[in-house]
Amino acid sequence: MISARAVSKSFDGGRTQSVLDLDLDVRPGEFLVLLGESGSGKTTTLKMLNGLIPPSSGAIVVDGEDISRVDQVRLRRRIGYVFQGIGLFPHLSVAENVALVPTLLGWPAEEREQRVDELLRLVHLDPEVYRDRAPSELSGGQRQRVGIARALAGRPRIVLMDEPFGALDPITRDHLQIEYQKIHRDLGLTTVMVTHDITESLLLADRIAVMNGGRLVRLGEPAELIAEPGDPYVAQLLETPRRQAERLGDLLDAGKGAR
Ligand SMILES: Nc1ncnc2c1ncn2[C@@H]1O[C@H](COP(=O)(O)OP(=O)(O)OP(=O)(O)O)[C@@H](O)[C@H]1O
User: Fold this and answer.
1) Which range is the signal sequence, renumbered to this chain (predicted)?
2) Which residue's CA is the closest to the ligand 1 atom numbered 7?
């Protein structure tokens, strides 16, 4: 569905090398997570996949088309994007934010409104209650739900998400992760999600692409990475969730014993 071939990106006339020689194939229907620490090149990669940033070299093919040769506006309307920090327009209502792409595509008002209500229900927000609210009148989790609804409005087959659950409390985060995973499956989407949270990537991804210093250092299913990190950096990343899982396992066992 998405292929990157020898993609590199530098800024400041070559002084900052953000992404180096990236080769990556995202399969149709796959949930792929780009994992790495701050500054490893994840956001730059995601923005290159929908043409927001042009690569310095290399090629990106989306659904069979080299994206440097397609109309950029049309391309971006075919790909849903959930931005880091959500990025809802504060002066627009929830419904207007969700209807952004359908409005740009010139959908008739009635169809647009039906779509907004359908999407709000999909992300578990009652349209009667939330349609006319301003983003400032929502909790962080509700705002993130609106961000997801907005990304899905134009019926994209591909969704790119940049740290979508990063700023949420753990309980809301867990709910939204599970809900989004269901949406991804039910709608047959291809999703690429950026995170620096190793546990999140292990729980959500079909495959994880680990980036370090602009390079893709490991690509594999969560179980494959756990069984064989294959790279010292990946082994180091896995230490924390492994330790936490062991401690939680011990506590759960102790809890059972105390009952
Ligand atoms: N427009 C830009 N101009 C100059 N340098 C940039 C620009 N965008 C990104 N960079 C640099 O490229 C590198 C990778 O940045 P990127 O935002 O892709 O990292 P990231 O892994 O997404 O980090 P984070 O998790 O903090 O968002 C960083 O060193 C960053 O400073």
Assistant:
1) none
2) 11
Question: Domain locations in the chain?
Answer: 2-220
Question: For residues 11 and 24, what is the distance between their CA atoms, to the nearest angstrom?
Answer: 21
Q: Which residues contact 185 (CB under 8 A, 6 or more apart)?
A: none
Positive or negative, the Cα torsion across 155, 160, 162, 165?
Answer: positive
Residue nearest to atom 8 of ligand 1 (CA): 44
Reported as a single tens digit per residue, the pLDDT across 39-98 is 999 999 999 999 999 999 999 999 999 998 888 888 877 899 988 767 889 999 999 999
Q: Which CATH number does the domain 2-220 belong to among 2.40.50.90, 3.40.50.300, 1.20.58.100, 3.20.20.80?
A: 3.40.50.300
- In the structure, which protein residues have their CB atom closer than 6 angstroms to any atom of ligand 1? 11-12, 16, 18, 36, 38-44, 196
pTM: 0.91
pLDDT of res. 255: 84
C-alpha 43 to ligand 1 mean position (Å): 7
Query: How many C-beta atoms surround the C-beta of residue 7 within 10 A?
Result: 23
